[in-house]
């Protein structure tokens, strides 16, 4: 095993590692990604291999500019308005693919649609711009584990599979992007995330219902974010042998991790995955979680928590 520090790379090095068809651990404002050349099916296959994914879920193609996104897919009407409002930022748009060679079939899981995002992280954008093509990047965790929101967590998850890694510090948002499809005139929220439903609706009006499973994000496994310990939700009085993810009200105890003492959902989102991991490291009988309000970013936080607890979302 190579020493982990060996993988710390410059933007130039990371771009050339991508060109060679190898993987790069890439910081974004949402979570750390495990990045590969989206046009190269062998490189994309390494992502699935490194994550141990049970199936080939479609991946997000990351680009540095709206112009580059527009070359991959037709972004018109509501898609264009959402892109203008939230890019660069924690929004992924699913639209009909325009240039199918820029994002290979394997990255799209054979669909005729493509998921695109312009991340708002200077290092991510620098690597993508220097590389020059679209970069496929799921969260850098192994399949079924919480998404890494710090460099150290990303290295622990998939560092061994990567040819380079970029340290961008802690992720500011801490939750994955919201995934919104704009297809056949319908705008659907497939995965709640860093941009709230309220913010999306302020730009495009009421969203269409996410509909049945055929419309849902195909990569959303029930156990997507599970730590090792079982997770119990909506707990106001944790047991002595449990770790506790608190919210708002001060709670005392050695294994208490308060997502936001001031009750700020943005702060709670940024801390969520890191605190799930920290709670898990205390080897508790279970991780109890305080009730989290379901408004704003709370919708995405509760979605991830239900998955961590093993409930089908
Ligand atoms: O914040 C994020 O989105 C992070 C960072 C690294 O950018 N990436 C991320 O990627 O969360 P991943 O692979 O873990 O999640 C991609 C999501 C999955 O739920 C997948 O099903 C959905 O996007 N998706 C991708 N392509 C799709 C498509 N063509 N149609 C519907 N959903 C799609
Ligand atoms: Mg993921």
What can you tell me about this protein's structure?
The chain is of the alpha/beta class. The protein has 2 domains: 11-216, Alpha-Beta Complex (DHBP synthase); 231-308, no CATH class. Helix content is 30%, strand content 17%. The chain has 10 helices and 13 strands. It has helices at residues 11-19, 41-51, 66-72, 78-86, 105-108, 122-131, 151-158, 197-204, 265-281, 298-308; strands at residues 24-26, 33-37, 60-62, 91-96, 113-117, 135-136, 164-165, 178-183, 186-191, 231-232, 242-246, 256-258, 286-289. A 9-stranded mixed beta sheet has the order 7-1-2-6-3-5-4-8-9, with helices on both faces. Helix 1 packs across helix 6. It is globular, with a radius of gyration of 19 Å. It starts with 10 loop residues before the first helix and ends in a 5-residue tail after the last helix. Mean pLDDT is 90; it is low at 1-5.
Question: Which properties best describe this structure?
Answer:
globular, 4-stranded parallel β-sheet, alpha/beta, 9-stranded mixed β-sheet, binds magnesium ion, disordered N terminus, 313 residues, binds threonylcarbamoyladenylate, DHBP synthase
